[in-house]
């Protein structure tokens, strides 16, 4: 296991409730830019971080595993002086959120898994595996993934923007490795009984992590899990429905202040 690193990050707000936020597979913390002006900065302090190989952490080498990312999150909290904190993780970082619940639950107040990849091995059909496993070297695949996981409803201008940002903010090696992390790693056996309050947010039109999949996995494992289906959104609610995204997240986290 690698030594924990202090991830590149940006802190917004000055509130007593501390929140660490990590984005999904396609890119860095910039995916959350549409929500930043909507945050309650008097009640919350948000730390938006980049995992190894992405964004400001692009030059930090690593193994790109759930354990490594979780260790880096805990190290970041310690560096910030945060003994207890909330965590918001999108997509593959929703899987990391579950790892944190299982292995670092004493540090957590409450967690939001946004379209969370469950803690089990992810079975993909041949076409899906080909699409995802080669996206690190075929840029167009990243756009196809964006469109499929949002119900093929959004403008192709957004698709091209997401491709450009993904290529700009990720290294090919980390992008490839994180696919193995979110699709291949399986720690589902560690999940039952975790007591951390957990909000599983799914998207109405998410074809990648559909609500039924989350109901059959995360919601069965975690006794204190709640489900919120985000209307008019797919896999990127922070981009597709930013006002409602912030409203739902802050209402949930605020209950565990």
Task: List the SSEs and their pairings.
Blueprint: E1 9-13, E2 17-22, E3 44-49, H1 66-80, E4 85-90, H2 92-103, E5 108-114, H3 126-133, H4 139-148, H5 156-169, H6 172-184, E6 198-203, H7 211-216, H8 218-221, E7 225-230, H9 237-240, H10 242-254
Parallel strand pairs: 2-3, 2-4, 4-5, 5-6, 6-7
Antiparallel strand pairs: 1-3
Helix pairs in contact: 1-2, 4-5
- What topology, given as strand order, has the largest sheet? 1-3-2-4-5-6-7
The top-level CATH class is Alpha Beta
Helix content: 25-40%
Mean pLDDT: 97
Largest sheet report = 7 strands, mixed
CA-to-CA gap between the ends? 33 Å
Estimated radius of gyration: 16 Å
Q: CATH superfamily assignment?
A: Alpha/Beta hydrolase fold, catalytic domain
| Morphology call | globular
The total domain count is 1
Strand proportion: 15-25%
How many strand segments? 7
Number of helices: 10
């Amino acid at each position: 296991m690698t030594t924990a690193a202090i991830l590149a990050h940006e802190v917004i707000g000055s509130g007593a409730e501390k929140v660490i936020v990590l984005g999904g597979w396609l890119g860095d913390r910039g995916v959350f830019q549409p929500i930043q002006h909507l945050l309650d900065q008097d009640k919350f302090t948000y730390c938006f971080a980049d995992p190894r190989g992405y964004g400001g952490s692009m030059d930090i080498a690593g193994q790109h595993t759930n354990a490594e990312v979780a260790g880096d999150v805990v190290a970041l909290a310690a560096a910030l002086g945060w003994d207890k904190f909330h965590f918001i993780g999108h997509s593959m970082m929703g899987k990391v959120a579950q790892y944190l619940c299982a292995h670092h639950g004493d540090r957590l107040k409450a967690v939001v898994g946004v379209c969370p990849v469950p803690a089990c091995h992810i079975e993909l059909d041949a076409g899906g595996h080909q699409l995802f496993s080669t996206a690190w070297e075929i840029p167009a695949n990243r756009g196809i993934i964006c469109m499929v996981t949002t119900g093929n409803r959004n403008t192709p201008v957004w698709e091209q923007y997401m491709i450009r940002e993904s290529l700009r903010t990720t290294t090919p090696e980390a992008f490839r490795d994180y696919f193995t992390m979110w699709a291949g790693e399986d720690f589902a056996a560690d999940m039952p009984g975790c007591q951390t309050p957990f909000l599983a947010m799914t998207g109405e039109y998410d074809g990648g992590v559909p609500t039924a999949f989350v109901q059959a996995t995360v919601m069965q494992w975690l006794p204190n899990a709640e489900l919120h289906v985000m209307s008019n959104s797919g896999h990127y609610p922070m981009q597709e429905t930013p006002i409602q995204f912030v409203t739902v997240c802050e209402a949930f986290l605020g209950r565990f202040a």
